[in-house]
């Protein structure tokens, strides 16, 4: 089975206790995709302790990066090929799905693209609680466009932030404050006209179905397969 959920922010795992109780047959061959702000790779001092919480879950954790990640530490993890795309192997059962990659999971195609703007970075310290790598680059965008077009169609898109079209869905339903587009919204809008089935994203701290094509996630867990 494959599921997707929103930000876990390093230790926000309370949602998984009732979920696991309701799904007693879960194994490491099942996947839970976290739509950014995973947070499990945050401090070298607490890294093993933080990751132990995720490894203790009965499924394999996959995640796209959000804005609140330690990108220096994350980039030190080994890179390899997995299910058709590049990943960081954080642990055998904790895998980072990198930006602009396409994966084949259980007969379905997934396109992933992490990153977003930290709205609170004025209160953070660069290199300790905020990293410039939080924002996608044009090189990552170009790679993503090539990979997306090569696969022809993505059954599912999983990102941290969202494109302009989805952002306006949030604004029209007053699920965000004063609407203001950020750099990643413009970048991700490049994928909105490409063929995809459904797009899941986190970042905005709401659980909401937005029309037929988009779902914003925080604590909700959605089964995909």
Summarize the structure.
With 225 residues, the chain is α/β, with parallel strands linked by helices. The chain is 22% helix and 27% strand.
Overall structural class, as computed from helix and strand content, comes to alpha/beta
How would a textbook summarize the main sheet?
Answer: 7 strands, mixed
Report the helical percentage.
10-25%
Inertia-based shape: globular
Q: What's the multimeric state? A: single chain
Distance between the termini: 5 Å
Binned strand content: 25-35%
- Average of the residue pLDDT scores: 97
Task: List the total number of helices.
Answer: 6
Rg, alpha carbons: 16 Å
N-to-C SSE string, H for helix and E for strand = EHEHEHEEEEEHEHHEEEE
Which segments are poorly predicted (pLDDT under 50) over 5 or more consecutive residues? none
The number of distinct β-strands equals: 13
Strand order of the largest sheet: 4-5-6-3-2-1-13
Blueprint of the fold:
Elements lengths: L1 E4 L10 H7 L8 E5 L11 H9 L4 E5 L6 H5 L3 E4 L2 E7 L2 E4 L3 E5 L2 E6 L24 H14 L2 E6 L4 H9 L10 H6 L7 E6 L6 E3 L3 E3 L4 E3 L2
Parallel strand pairs: 1-2, 2-3, 3-6, 8-9, 9-10, 10-12
Antiparallel strand pairs: 1-13, 4-5, 5-6, 7-8, 11-12
């Amino acid at each position: 089975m494959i599921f997707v959920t929103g930000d876990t922010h390093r230790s926000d795992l309370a949602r998984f206790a009732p979920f696991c109780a309701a799904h007693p047959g879960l194994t490491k061959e099942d996947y839970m995709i976290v739509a950014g702000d995973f947070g499990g790779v945050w401090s070298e001092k607490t890294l093993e302790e933080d990751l132990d919480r995720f490894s203790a879950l009965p499924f394999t954790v996959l995640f796209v990066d959000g804005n609140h990640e330690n990108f220096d530490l994350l980039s030190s993890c080994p890179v390899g090929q997995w299910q058709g795309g590049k990943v960081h192997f954080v642990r055998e059962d904790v895998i980072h799905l990198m930006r602009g990659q396409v994966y084949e999971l259980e007969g379905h195609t997934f396109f992933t693209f992490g990153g977003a703007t930290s709205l609170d970075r004025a209160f953070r310290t660069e290199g300790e609680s905020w990293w410039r790598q939080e924002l996608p680059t044009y090189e990552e965008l170009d790679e993503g466009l090539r990979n997306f077009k090569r696969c022809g169609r993505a059954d599912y898109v999983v990102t941290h932030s969202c494109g302009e079209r989805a952002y306006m869905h949030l604004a029209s339903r007053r699920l965000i404050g004063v609407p203001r587009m950020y750099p990643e919204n413009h970048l991700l809008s490049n994928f909105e006209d490409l063929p995809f089935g459904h797009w899941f994203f986190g970042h905005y701290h709401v659980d909401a179905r937005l029309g037929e094509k988009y779902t914003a996630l925080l604590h909700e867990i959605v089964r995909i397969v």
